[in-house]
Amino acid sequence: MMKKELIDEKEFKEFEENAAFIESEDLIKWTVENEFFLGIQQKILQKGAKLIVGPRGTGKTHQMRFAYNTCLHHKNKPLAIYASFTKYYHLEPFLSKKSNAITIFHTWVLSKILLSCYQLLYDLNKSDIELYEKGSILSQKDLEKFTSQTEKGTSQEWHDDIITNLTIDEVINTIEELAIKLGRTRTILLLDDAALTLTPEYLIEFFDVFRSLKKGRIQA
Predict the structure, then answer these.
(1) Is residue 158 exposed (0-12), middle (13-18) or buried (19+ Cβ within 10 Å)?
(2) Is the dihedral of CA 135, 185, 107, 61 positive or negative?
(3) Where are the domains of the chain?
(4) pLDDT tens digit string along 149-194?
(5) Which residue of 62, 119, 135, 216 sits 20 to 30 Å from the alpha carbon of 81, by its own alpha carbon?
């Protein structure tokens, strides 16, 4: 009679984890810091826009999330805002059925960035800091609802309020005020999976947003 070998569930997961879904504590613990890795980290934190390129699975998300966690609790580092756009493809159907598809995508990108600001406050245990007054259409709850519905391919009338109120300038002002409250002199945006994989129509719009956000304290 053969003895059945049991594989520890956590140990098994370690072989299939994606950097996008690994807990921050494990991401840091499992990272091997060599000269090449640290060189990329240094460049990410420097001033100026950077584009990390490479095939899927080469560690782009790992690099960004590690940089985010490095900055999180070190006030001498820039304020890092990490936003993932991996679900962009859920918005592609809008291109064939909505005349304002690009506007919806534009607002979705800005919503994801603002939601990352809320996540940042949570990670810092500073959720008591309010980005907007209670009842604002740009509350975390409404932004989460908007992005969730948009990623399901639905567009509702109340979305127009977010589309109208969520502008580039609004996001810039919010991020700059957040940096001041947290005592950071500059901010870097870590925008993941959003450059080379986007459908052409969305790619152009994304880079327009990217360029427009690089003002004042904000660097991408």
Answers:
(1) exposed
(2) negative
(3) 56-219
(4) 999 999 999 999 999 999 999 999 999 999 999 999 999 999 887 5
(5) 135
